Amino acid sequence: MKRIFTLMVAMAAIATTASAQLQFGVEAGLNVNLPSSFDNATIKQTVDPKNSLGWFAGLKAKYQFAMGLGVDGAVLYSQKKNDMGESSKDLRYIDVPINLRYQLGLGSLLSIYAAAGPQWSVNIGDRDWGRTFSQTIQDQNLNNVSGTVTELYQGALNNLSINLGAGVLLMKHLQVGFTYNIPITKGGELIYTLPNADPTSAIDTYNSVKENWKNNSWQIRAAYFF
Prior knowledge:
Elements: H1 2-21, E1 22-35, H2 41-44, E2 52-64, E3 69-83, E4 88-105, E5 110-123, E6 128-138, E7 144-155, E8 158-170, E9 174-183, E10 188-193, E11 208-213, E12 215-225
Antiparallel strand pairs: 1-2, 1-12, 2-3, 3-4, 4-5, 5-8, 6-7, 7-10, 8-9, 9-12, 10-11
């Protein structure tokens, strides 16, 4: 009987310790989107990607193992603006980051952490946008060719990226930090259609130019664990 009682006490202690190491919370922050530039010289004349601001919010959890190691994960609604100069659109995603983290306590009130891991993003909104405009371009014979140019942007359905981040944890509940998000897969594709020209013109070579872009981003984030 005594052994059974001792075993029950030990199991209760383990369960209590595990629940203390597992925390759930909410998280929100800002996305600073940095779309990559395009390589094609003709596209560069009219497309000038710019840094832009978005936001995210959702649910978060973290679990601490021994020796300061742990993991965290989240399910976030994320809005990322893609500003291509004259044409822009807010793209909507569900982001699922999963990070391995190291947390170092500097006292009962303050800890610092570093985290890194993959993030899977699923586009849940309208992925296409663009514009049409008139443009004059020189062909290979230095003749001016005028016509309608079409820029069609198609955001990728899924994105895979890597997060690198750090920050502080205050009073074991409030976490504030930053993350740099490095894309692995493309953010989308630009189909750039130029006006038709004379069959001998070099412009026909660029009649349907396709280029991909990627979205690097900085994130400023705050989470509260219950």
